[in-house]
Amino acid sequence: MPRDIEEIRDFLEREIVPLYDNFDAGHGRDHVHTVMSQSLSLASHYPEVDTCLLLTAAAYHDLGLAFGRDEHHIHSARIVRDDQRLRHWFNEEEINIIAEAAEDHRASSGHEPRTIYGRIVAEADRIIDSETIVRRALQYGMSHEPGLDREAQYRRLMDHMLEKYAEGGYLKLWIPYGDNARRLKEFRQTLADEQAFRALFDNIYNSLTN
User: Fold this and answer.
1) The domain containing residue 146 runs over which residues?
2) 112 and 183 together in one domain
3) From 6's CA, which of 51, 125, 162, 199 has a CA 20 to 30 Å away?
């Protein structure tokens, strides 16, 4: 099916990206733009990848947050399949690829993404940067549990960090390219140093509350 990536990009910027304004600060426009950009960067290693499909999957990947966090990946896939506008550019098989990539991006999904599109979007969604990880997690906690004081927010965040990012955590990296593996190792070292991690948390907490 013939398509123009610039036409698709314009549609995504006009109709899809603004929907992220409705989500918490850690999942706003900056986040979706980062995932879109990182996806295209990773795709340069895979010439067989259709960038139109990939960019669309990256743009839609978190739209399911409108229905809550727990099953947002499932809702994101449903939104893709229900959006009749996409049929202007994609056939049913391609829409299914986009939907599966959106569904498979979640770190805690429990299974490897089914296609290279899912692996790329999942990897692009892994923003392995210590300050970004802690800031996004803290913004989420402060948005969804605003009644927690500093210490309770710290305990909530630390539990989540250990469950997801520590050795044996559920975060998996699927693409050998890029800096995520090195950055994950560095973040694990920070996480294991309680004094360093607490200082990182306090700095970010203060910047969000002052």
Assistant:
1) 130-209
2) no
3) 125
